[in-house]
Amino acid sequence: MKKVVFATKNKGKIREINEIFKSENVEVVSMEEIGVNIDIEETGTTFEENAIIKAKELKKYCDEIVLADDSGLEIDALDKKPGVYSSRFMGEDTSYEVKNAKIIEMLKDVPYEKRTARFVSVIAAVLPNGDVITARGTIEGIIGYESKGENGFGYDPIFFVPELNKSTAELSLEEKNKISHRGNALRLMKKKLMEIGI
Q1: Which of 16, 45, 62, 86 has its CA 20 to 30 A from that of 71?
Q2: Of the residues 39, 63, 70, 131, which is catalytic?
Q3: Tally of structural domains, the chain
């Protein structure tokens, strides 16, 4: 089985990723699982730049293919903020419960049709020969009026998918993977990796 290292310490994320790669005889492990415990500073101004920075930094510590992602929430009524600063919005140590409540408060006077938002995910891969490839996925939705659902993580409870009449935190892992920004980016990345015979 081929091993791929993903630049994350988030177990929820690793579960989601393995669900997508399981049919390809690929095992995705976290950086912690290979004994790498570094903090990588995200100094880029785009999702692509940050994903590449993380992947290249982790590649210094292992021989396997390395994947890294940068993802975030773009809210149109807030000029696409928090965007690349999604995890750092209100400070990295602030709970998402607090962040989500703050965003709902910020949008309290914004009508439903102007509450449009999207999750964006960019995956970068650094191959054994040093080549870098990227894949971008998105999911469009609406910022809800309250937090709903216990599944998922981050901004999932306030991100509402009108077609499903649910927040992404109300979806099962299987449902979420089918439509999520990360799921879309990972499927595209998987396709690119398989095409070059990885």
Answers
A1: 62
A2: 70
A3: 1
